[in-house]
Amino acid sequence: MAEPTIEAGPVALRTSPLAHLRDRMRAAAVTGARGVTLTERPFVTMVNLRVDPASEAADRVEKSLGASLPRQCGHTTASGPHTVLWLGPDEWLVLSRTDGTTETYETDVAAELRAALGGDPGSVVDVSANRTTVELSGPSARQVLEKGCPLDLHPRAFGPGRAVSTTVGPVPLLLWQVDDAPTYRLLPRSSFADHLARRLIDAMSEYRGSEVP
Fold it and tell me: What distance lies between CA 175 and its chain's CA centroid?
């Protein structure tokens, strides 16, 4: 087999952490009133940002993103293609959808945030390859997630726009609820994605049958 040429570039050659489970995730989908689906949303640009939230640099970063930096644990903000998740008092994860055509390892988002930071204290690190995004959605999504997640996910305690660090089974991840469907996006380290997906596929299987009275 011929070796790939340099012209192919990193984008053409990259494979998502769960590409090998795509068919199994699709086959695991449950429809109807007890429905739940599992999909991967690969290649989301992820940038770790650290900056003093009270600084002028933070103001410049917010203008660059078009979104404010959330100031409380669990909070998120969004504008256009960007969503900002709170990680700590001076730390955030910026998620951005791209067109998937860039062939550089450093994204435009990271470059723009570094320019906004300027020479002020702080850091901007592209961590896109560090995690993948697994989406769990449907009427039974919360029940599936509760089989392995210790959080109180009832709507009185957790709802759309909330994102926190937690675990599902032994897998540490960021959990973000997107809407009331409910739809959750789980962001595990890429090396743990296979274990997480297989665990969720197994947890989904009972919802194919009739509900026990």
Answer: 7
| Concatenated DSSP letters of 170-206 | TEEEEEEEEETTTEEEEEEBGGGHHHHHHHHHHHHGG
Q: Which of 100, 71, 98 shows the shortest CA–CA distance to 86?
A: 71
Q: At 124, phi and psi to the nearest 5?
A: -135, 120
Separation in Å, CA 129 to CA 13, 63, 123, 126: 14, 26, 18, 8
More confident residue, 6 or 184: 184
Within 13 Å and on the Cβ side, how many CA atoms surround 148? Answer: 22
- Residue range 173-194, pLDDT digits in tens: 999 999 999 999 999 999 999 9
- The two structure tokens encoding residue 45: 């640009």
Q: Which residues contact 46 (CB under 8 A, 6 or more apart)?
A: 93, 94, 95, 96, 126, 127, 128, 130, 131, 187
